[in-house]
């Protein structure tokens, strides 16, 4: 068997299961988000509305962010020139870390090139700092957290999703003297449900465990200054390490952890994923800092974002769409079949100019394939009307089941 045959087999399996992923080539236009232009494979162009982006608040096109990036680019040029340890630490990186530490009420923050790398590098490094560390990880944690826990060589325990009683059982079964860390998320991105933060913090106190929370889908959008669900619920001080992203609500790029000064110092000194990676371009760091700074005071934008999500969920429910609603900004509509999910996505794009990416296994369990919509403050009534009409028509066209509106 040739090497090419192995590749054909692997890719063919994805096609057979209806979960082969294709890139949608789009051009965003400054000041016009969520509207964009799709470039088809044949070279033709099509106007589209993006309904699956992670730029939750449209900050990727905000004048404050763009101005900061232009200023930095004009002042210092494009790249950082090195790793953080070798010429790649600039005043822009330090200013951003200061903003992030202040955002979460922590002593320090540490920048990474993405939140994935921040999770992976930190969680894989912690057992070097705490020999014998046992990590207790929620079953639905992000792939980056799973990878970090898997690679660290230490002991791990997986507790059922959001099941505090199961977590307690696992904690009780282990040596009381062993160092422990509980890793979980504030908002789980596929179902949009919230982690039981306070209950987990209570267990951590009881069993002398550290706490590690991924706030990637919450920073910028929850809390009076955008510090996430931990800030909203006044629990940030009970979390030892907060992970966040600059690529979603903040509309730029990068990831980070916020923690004590000693914790950040140890991670930066021991984590290969930090030590051997070129730092973010100064213009990116400047834009992210401007975005974080702006969203600390723009509660109106957060309120509008939540309002748009509530409206979209209400309208989907009125048409009987099988929707998961845990009260967050994420709007998953369950199709339950990978082929149908891809077909719906293709028809929405080709026939209606609506871009929403199908979410299939392994991102979600088989049988729960879905279209995940991410409304933003700039998705107005016209865009929403067009989406609802298209979904209603295609749902009937594909003879998919609807559910009665409860209540």
Automatic annotation (TrEMBL):
CDD domains per UniProt: KBL_like
**Which parts pass through the membrane?**
none
- Where does the Aminotransferase class I/classII large domain start and stop, copy by copy? 48-390
Q: Name one GO molecular function term.
A: 5-aminolevulinate synthase activity
UniProt pathway: Porphyrin-containing compound metabolism; protoporphyrin-IX biosynthesis; 5-aminolevulinate from glycine: step 1/1
Q: Which reaction does it catalyse?
A: succinyl-CoA + glycine + H(+) = 5-aminolevulinate + CO2 + CoA
Provide the alphabetized UniProt keywords. Answer: Acyltransferase, Heme biosynthesis, Pyridoxal phosphate, Transferase
Which GO BP terms, alphabetically?
Answer: protoporphyrinogen IX biosynthetic process
> Which cofactors are required for activity?
pyridoxal 5'-phosphate
Top-rank lineage group of the source organism:
Bacteria
E.C. no: 2.3.1.37
Enzyme class, one word?
A: transferase
Q: Which family does it belong to?
A: Belongs to the class-II pyridoxal-phosphate-dependent aminotransferase family.
Spell out the protein name for this chain. Answer: 5-aminolevulinate synthase
What organism is the protein native to?
A: Pseudooceanicola batsensis (strain ATCC BAA-863 / DSM 15984 / KCTC 12145 / HTCC2597) (Oceanicola batsensis)
């Amino acid at each position: 068997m040739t090497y090419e045959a192995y590749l054909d087999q692997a890719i063919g399996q994805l096609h057979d299961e209806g979960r082969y992923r294709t890139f949608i080539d789009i051009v965003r236009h400054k000041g016009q988000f969520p509207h964009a232009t799709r470039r088809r494979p044949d070279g033709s162009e099509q106007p589209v509305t993006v309904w699956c982006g992670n730029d939750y608040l449209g900050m990727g096109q905000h004048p404050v962010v763009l101005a900061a990036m232009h200023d930095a680019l004009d002042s210092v040029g494009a790249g950082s020139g090195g790793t953080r340890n070798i010429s790649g630490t600039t005043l822009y990186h330090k200013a951003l870390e200061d903003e992030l530490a202040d955002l979460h009420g922590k002593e320090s923050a540490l920048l990474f090139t993405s939140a994935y790398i921040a999770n992976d590098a930190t969680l894989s490094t912690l057992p070097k700092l705490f020999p014998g560390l046992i990590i207790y990880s929620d079953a639905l944690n992000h792939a980056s957290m799973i990878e970090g826990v898997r690679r660290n060589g230490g002991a791990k325990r997986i507790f059922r999703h959001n099941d505090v009683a199961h977590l307690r059982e696992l904690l009780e079964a282990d040596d009381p003297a062993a160092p422990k860390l509980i890793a979980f998320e504030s908002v789980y991105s596929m179902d949009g449900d919230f982690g039981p933060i306070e209950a987990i913090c209570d267990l951590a106190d009881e069993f002398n465990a550290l706490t590690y929370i991924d706030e990637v889908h919450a920073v910028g959008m929850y809390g009076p200054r955008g510090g996430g669900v931990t800030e909203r619920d006044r629990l940030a001080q009970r979390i030892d390490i907060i992970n966040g992203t600059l690529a979603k609500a903040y509309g730029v790029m990068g990831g980070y952890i916020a923690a004590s000064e000693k914790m950040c110092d140890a991670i930066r000194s021991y984590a290969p994923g930090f030590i051997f990676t070129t730092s973010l371009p100064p213009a990116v760091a400047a834009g992210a800092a401007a975005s974080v700074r702006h969203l600390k005071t723009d509660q109106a934008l957060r309120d509008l974002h939540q309002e748009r999500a509530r409206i979209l969920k209400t309208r989907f429910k009125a048409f009987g769409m099988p929707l998961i609603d845990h009260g967050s900004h994420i709007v998953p509509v369950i199709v339950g079949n990978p082929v149908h999910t891809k077909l719906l996505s293709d028809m929405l794009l080709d026939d209606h100019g609506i871009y929403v990416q199908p979410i299939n296994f392994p991102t979600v369990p088989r049988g729960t394939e879905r279209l995940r919509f991410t409304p933003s403050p700039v998705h107005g009534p016209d865009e929403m009307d067009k989406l609802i009409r298209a979904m209603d028509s295609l749902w009937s066209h594909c003879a998919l089941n609807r559910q009665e509106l409860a209540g």
